[in-house]
């Protein structure tokens, strides 16, 4: 909820955190993944969107802010890369298809910030996933140069589907043109 000197921009590290907290739109959960095989871990993770929407239907706050923070217990440090970062990469497309964003956090995260090469925003004292509805500012987190073109195309198409109607016209056109560029680039690779 606070600014950070290495963030690379002004404002809080997460622009949603304070509003979500103040609106009582944040649910905390604990998931004991001790001795859970990776494939079983993925199966449970795939069911989280269903739980998110079930909880959302019962909440009284601002539904656009509703978020779930799921602390993952029982993992050893050497498992963070696979169970948090790896699982995030594998499961994020399904979350985006449902109009959700999935954030991955753990003490050893090497994920760099959008605005700074030195700031590591996904570092946290405990391994966790955070789930929230996709929003217009998520354009910052998709179509990144370190992702394959197919992944970027999938993410942009879901972004357009879920938030496209709420974007300013110029941004909507930029997203549309970027989708066309990626489709062409993928077709040329084939």
Polypeptide structure, described:
With 190 residues, the protein is α+β, with helices and mostly antiparallel strands. 42% of the residues lie in helices and 14% in strands. It has a four-stranded mixed β-sheet. The protein is globular, with a radius of gyration of 17 Å. InterPro entries: DUF6875. Pfam families: DUF6875. It comes from Paraburkholderia pallida.
Core attributes:
plasmid; 2 domains; four-stranded mixed β-sheet; alpha+beta; 190 residues; DUF6875; 6 helices; DUF6875 domain-containing protein; 4 strands
Shape: globular
Structural class: alpha+beta
Total beta-strand segments: 4
Share of β-strand residues: 5-15%
How much is the average pLDDT? 85
SSE sequence, one letter per element: HEHHEHEEHH
* Rg measurement, Å: 17 Å
Low-confidence stretches: none
Q: How many helical elements?
A: 6
Total tally of structural domains: 2
Biggest sheet: strand arrangement: 1-2-4-3
Distance between the termini: 45 Å
Main sheet? 4 strands, mixed
Domain DUF6875: 2-155
Protein name: DUF6875 domain-containing protein
Organism: Paraburkholderia pallida
Keywords: Plasmid
């Amino acid at each position: 909820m606070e600014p950070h000197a290495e963030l690379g921009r002004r404002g809080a590290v997460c622009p949603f955190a304070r509003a979500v907290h103040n609106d009582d739109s944040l649910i905390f959960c604990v998931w004991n993944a001790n001795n859970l095989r990776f494939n079983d871990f993925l199966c449970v993770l795939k069911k989280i969107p269903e739980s998110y929407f079930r909880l959302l239907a019962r909440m009284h706050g601002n539904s656009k802010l509703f978020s779930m923070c799921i602390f993952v217990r029982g993992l050893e440090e050497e498992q963070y890369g696979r169970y948090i970062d790896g699982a995030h990469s594998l499961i994020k497309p399904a979350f985006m298809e449902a109009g959700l964003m999935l954030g991955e956090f753990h003490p050893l995260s090497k994920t760099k910030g959008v605005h700074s090469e030195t700031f590591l925003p996904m570092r946290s004292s405990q391994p966790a996933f955070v789930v929230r509805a996709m929003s217009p500012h998520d354009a910052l987190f998709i179509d990144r140069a370190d992702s394959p073109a197919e992944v970027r195309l999938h993410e942009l198409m879901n972004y357009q589907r879920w938030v496209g109607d709420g974007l300013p016209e110029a941004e909507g056109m930029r997203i549309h043109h970027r989708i066309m560029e990626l489709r062409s680039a993928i077709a040329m690779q084939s």
